[in-house]
Amino acid sequence: MSELLEWNGELARPLNLIDGVFQPADSGQWLDSTDPSTGSVWAQVPAGEEADVDAAVSAAKRAFHGSWRDTPALQRAALLRSAAALFEEHADELARIETRDNGRIYAETRAGDLPAVYQMFHYWAGAADKIQGETVRVGPGSFNFTLPEPVGVVAVIVPWNAPLSILAAKLGAALAAGCTAVVKPAEQAACSILTAAKLFERAGFPAGVVNVVCGTGASAGDALVQHRDVQKITFTGSTDTARRITESSAQTLKPLAFELGGKSANIVFADADLEAAEIGVSTASIFTGGAGQTCVAGSRILIQRPIYDEMLARIEKRAATVALGDPMASSTSMGPIAFDRQFEKVRSYLELGREEGAEIVFGGRSGEELFERGSPYASGYFVEPTLFREARNDMRICREEIFGPVAAVIPFESEEEAVAIANDSEYGLACGVWTSDLKRAHRMVPRVEAGAVWVNAYRRIHWAVPFGGVKNSGYGRDSGLESLRGYLRTKSAWIELGE
Ligand code: NAI
Ligand code: MG
Predict the structure, then answer these.
(1) Nearest Cα to 406, choosing from 474, 307, 319?
(2) Could you tell me the distance, in angstroms and rounded to a whole number, from the CA of residue 264 to the centre of ligand 1?
(3) Neighbour count for residue 88 (Cβ, 10 Å)
(4) Which residue ranges of the chain lie beneath pLDDT 70?
(5) Is residue 384 in contact with ligand 1, taking CB distance under 6 Å?
(6) 401 lines ligand 1 (CB under 6 A)
């Protein structure tokens, strides 16, 4: 399948990377990883546990104190640039591996995520030598200056929906800051990160600077969170797991950065460009290459009454063009749900929406209902794009993150009401506003409780722009220079002048 990952069509077995050595888990145990488009096991990944985590953290600590912390910034930058070049060179292979493992269509992963990954490494290379302190006038008699220092060993805990791009945002910043890292990919889709570890080796990072330990969240993840030599945790995933991490890390008081779930509102006003809104609203939630498995999914669609029926008819027409099937094929526009447990979760919400009294506009089928008997995809984890209408914001389908190609449409009358509905959520990750009224756009931006607001657009993400949420969508930011501060701490130095 690729130069980087040996795969004879039976079972790929990528290894952990600890202290510069590729190795299986200390216990010799493996975890199955499925190809979610067929439900068959295509790879096994190391079932790392406490012993593996401990070895990786020790290596990262040695590398930090041994040399990395004091490596000149431009040398760290040069290594990040080498990594960027290698990721660009191997972008096809890495995208293929990621698609095989999590089901998001190849076209989207290759054209969207991979270029972002290598651009991010370039971006962070450029940031490495721009870390500066301040001088503070505290005299007479004393001189004070601040020294930003890397925090040390960082735990980077990554989910399965977009492993490489989420990794690059966090790891790029950590390495630029002068930290070393232990990466814990999600056990359901770890292969792209385990494979990419080879590129950090080839780029020339010293042993121990980047370590990758795959294992379950409850075992490897928790061991990492509790480890006393880990100085910072950066995590993307569910709000429940973030709570668990907060509790587990309490004894060792680590700074945490959480990028969590969402139930983002995509608000269409009657004065909007309806064609642009139709595309924006559909591709924000139900018609995505990753089957809606994105934290920023605009899964609550708020439509102003006068255009309610017209917008629904437009979105419905679009549903007929969605093609489910082989995520590698260019004719496929939407892949499966990434693994069995998530598939069952999404299906349970299809059932729940009906029970709660929301009406299905289109969709609602899944699994073998979608393919002819004998098709390899009938045993895959496919869910049809599904739209519920006449939903109320107090229904569970409007309150809980589904993380699938499922959205609920809620009608509203006034701007006031739209803001109230949008903000009536435990989450606050993103919000879309569709309007041709510039004043309204400016009124809406400060009023919605969200980490990102898009006006006449959706899902715009860029490595130079801080990304994260408010409320139960988390705290701390990925991307942008602001996120660099999360990997630094400030020392204040006092020089006594004796005057
Ligand atoms: P999760 O939050 O449990 O998994 C994310 C990562 O955390 C994985 O690497 C996992 O192994 C690790 N992890 C799990 N338990 C841990 C623990 N106790 N200590 C340390 N690390 C731990 O999410 P899961 O169960 O895979 O998905 C459940 C739901 O989470 C989804 O249905 C979706 O709603 C949400 N989610 C949100 C994501 C986002 O982009 N914000 C990404 C993935 C999931
Ligand atoms: Mg998989």
Answers:
(1) 319
(2) 18
(3) 15
(4) 1
(5) no
(6) yes
Contact assessment for residue 303 and residue 271, using Cβ atoms and an 8 Å cutoff: no
For residues 113 and 166, give the distance between their C-alpha atoms in angstroms, rounded to a whole number: 9
C-alpha of residue 11 to centroid of ligand 2, in Å:
12
Is any ligand 1 atom within 6 A of the Cβ of residue 246?
Answer: no
Distance, CA of 204 to CA of 78 (rounded, Å): 10
CA of 101, nearest ligand number:
2
pLDDT of the residue at 139: 86
Upstream peptide bond of 306 is cis (omega within 30 degrees of 0): no
Which pair of structure tokens corresponds to residue 474?
């988390």
Instruction: Please name the residue that has the structure tokens 């401990």.
Output: 54
Ligand 1 atom 38, closest CA: 237
Q: How far apart are alpha carbons 273 and 59 in whole angstroms?
A: 55
Cβ(113) to ligand 1 under 6 A?
no
Ligand 1 pocket, 241 CB below 6 A? yes
CB 258 within 8 A of CB 240: no
Please give the pLDDT value at position 1.
55
**Rounded distance from Cα 438 to ligand 1 centre (Å):** 38
Sequence-distant (6+) residues with CB within 8 A of 161 are: 102, 104, 189, 290, 293, 294, 295, 338, 403
Give residue-wise pLDDT tens across range 55-73. Answer: 999 999 999 999 999 999 9
CA of 156 to the centre of ligand 1 (A): 13
Residues 6 or more apart in contact with residue 403 via CB below 8 angstroms: 161, 261, 292, 293, 297, 342, 345, 346
Structural domains in the chain, sorted by start: 7-260+474-492 (3.40.605.10), 265-463 (3.40.309.10)
pTM summary value = 0.98
User: What is the number of the ligand 1 atom nearest to the C-alpha of 158?
Assistant: 9
Residue 487, token pair as written in the block: 């990997």
